Amino acid sequence: MYIESFMDQRWNVMEASEQEFRGEVVPVNDQFQSDGGISTFQLGWAQRVGDDLSLGIGVGSRIGSVTRTFSRVIVSEGDFLVVPFRAAKEPECLYCS
Questions:
Q1: What pLDDT, in 10s, does the model give residues 65-75?
Q2: Any idea where the domains of the chain sit in the sequence?
Q3: Under a CB-based contact definition with an 8 Å cutoff, are residues 56 and 44 in contact?
Q4: DSSP letter string over 32-85?
Q5: Structure confidence by residue, pLDDT tens digits, 19-51
Q6: Going by C-beta distance under 8 Å and a sequence separation of 6 or more, which residues neighbour residue 73?
Q7: Helix H or strand E segment including 25
Q8: Which of 43, 47, 63, 70 has its CA 20 to 30 Å from the CA of residue 32?
């Protein structure tokens, strides 16, 4: 039997920069986070059948999940605004009336 943590994805990165927002350049703080990982479970069995032959079988599985998030804080005149990101929408049809 074999159990192991595999592909841990726990990290956090923060970066400060500037972005044009509503016609002026304002400071922004970006945060990228990842949390989760994948675990491995394996079970095996082997049996010697003769002097020169052995048979074996093994089964295994990998389970887990990873959650990644991105957030941006825009600093404007002393107020902190959190701007949520949304999933992209289908582009509007330019030729439809």
A1: 888 888 888 77
A2: 2-83
A3: yes
A4: EEEEEEEEEEEEEEEEE-SSS-EEEEEEEEEEEEEEEEEEEEEEETTEEEEE--
A5: 887 788 888 889 999 888 888 889 999 999 999
A6: 28, 29, 31, 80, 81, 82, 83
A7: strand 24-48
A8: 63
